[in-house]
Structures are given as structure tokens and as C-alpha cells.
Amino acid sequence: MKWITRERPKIDRIACPWLIRRFVDKEAEFIYVPFEEVIPKSKELNAIPFDLPEVEYTHYGDECTFDYIIKKHKLDDPALKVMAVIVRGADTDRHDIASQSSGLWAISAGLAHNVKDDQVLLEKGMMIYDALYSWARHLQNEKHTQNPIENLLLDVYKKFLKQKSGKAPAWAQELKEIIQDQIDTNLTLSLKEISQSLDVHPTYLSREFSKYFDDLSFGDYIRKLRIEKAITLLDDSEHSLAEIAYLTGFSDQSHFARIFKKTTGKSPLSYKKSLSKK
């Protein structure tokens, strides 16, 4: 079956062809023409018009054409329902309804800017929605914890549980959930933010924190963990000092060297040389 819509697609006019070809009509052919030609051409070519006013396959209320196709063809795949909210948010500039919507819009807009041929744009866009579908179906619970501070916060939690005897306070029990919820999106997670999430006054949490972590403040404890990580990485000669500074969350090599020497009494370079002599 032939389907026709407006030229220069970005969100719905690529997401819908993906949905149709993958779940409704595998042999579907999609045609892009100027807005004023869509209806005349649809009659001439016996094609189904979509994503424009006063046709069946279009927006209804707050929902976009992607939503309508799911309902119209009774597609009950849970992953498609997850995608529908993301597509809707991107297509209607409501990025608040799904955290992925702004990213989908940015990628789609950039792709449309780079690719001027609508058919080529469609084929490249199909790959984006294949990837989004795989994420929605298989990978929603996967985490990408590559920033050092994220792993350090997780270490804080794990070490707390190991060294605390008896029942941990409620705020400590909730710490793991906070880290899991925010670790992918909030790279500057602070003790103040943690206190707000736990509904514990930051002053109290700051005071109590030191009791369980070597009498160190939250910031000092994080720096201690960074230096411990750096010492481990210094054993690996493949890493430069600049790389180690990045991997341990310091702003630059100079900052890393200053904190390292303050903590260990040696510069990173001196420490690394001493390892090579052993």
C-alpha cells in the first residue's frame, strides 16, 4: 500500500512509516510531497494520506499520528506504548512527558538538517526507531555508569552497609534507590539533593554522614575514593596522568595532581615512578 504525507519529515512523519512498515504493512511505500500536493496526489496515486489535518491518520487531542496508528491497528506491544509517549513528547514539544523526548527531537532535527533527500532521510530514520524499539523492549533497566562520581556514590552506599552494624537508618536504606534512579541523568548529585530526596534535613545528614565514613565529610570521602581509584589506575601504565584525572572525576590534570599530593604526600608522577622501581 502507498502512504503519502508532507515533505521534510522529522518526528511523526518518520516514526509513523517505521511503525507501519514494521507492524502494519511490511511492503508499505512512503511518498513525501509539498503540503498542498498531498491530497491531490493521494487520490491520483491511491495512497493513504497521513499526519496532516482533516484526514483519518492524524493527531487527535493531545495525541499524535503515531498514537492513532497503534489504536487503529490494535497494536498491543508494551514497547510501542513506551515509544508512543516519547514520540508524542518530541512531536508536540512536550518534552516533560518523557525524558527521552528532547533527545529524540535533537537527533531527528539534526538528521533532517544533514540529509536533504527525504527518502534517504526516511531510511536513516528507520534505524533510529529500530534502536529506540530495542531499548524500549529490552534495555529500559540498563544503566550506563561511566562517570567516576556515579560509581563512587555507589561505593559509598556499599561501604556504608558493610561497616554499619545493626539496622541502618531509613535514609541510608533509601540511598541505594536514589542512586539507581538518578545515576544516569544527574551527574552532579550532591548531598543536598540526596537530603531532599530522603526528606532529611541536609544539616542533619551532613553531620550523620561522617559518623559512618571515617569521620570524613561527604566531599572529603568522595575525594578519598577518587584518590584510591587513581592509585589503582596508576598501576596501569597504559593510562596517562591526564586520562587518570578524567577517569577519577577531577576537572583537569593540575587539580588532580594537587589533591593527589595533598592526600598521599607525593605527586602522581612521583608515585608512578616509584611503582616502576618495585
Cα separation of the termini:
73 Å
Principal-axes shape call? elongated
Instruction: Encode the helix/strand succession as letters.
Output: EHEHEHHHHHHHHHHHH
- Rg, Å, rounded: 26 Å
Q: What percent of residues adopt helix (DSSP H or I)? A: 55-70%
Q: How would you describe the overall organization of this protein?
A:
This protein has 278 residues and is mostly helical. Helices cover 62% and strands 5% of the residues. The protein is built from 14 helices and three strands. The chain has a three-stranded parallel sheet, covered by helices on one side. The longest helix is centred in the middle third of the chain and has 22 residues, at 118-139. It starts with a strand and ends with a helix. The model is unreliable at 179-188 (pLDDT under 50).
What's the gist of this structure?
The chain is mostly helical.
Task: Give structural attributes.
278 residues; mainly alpha; 14 helices; 62% helix
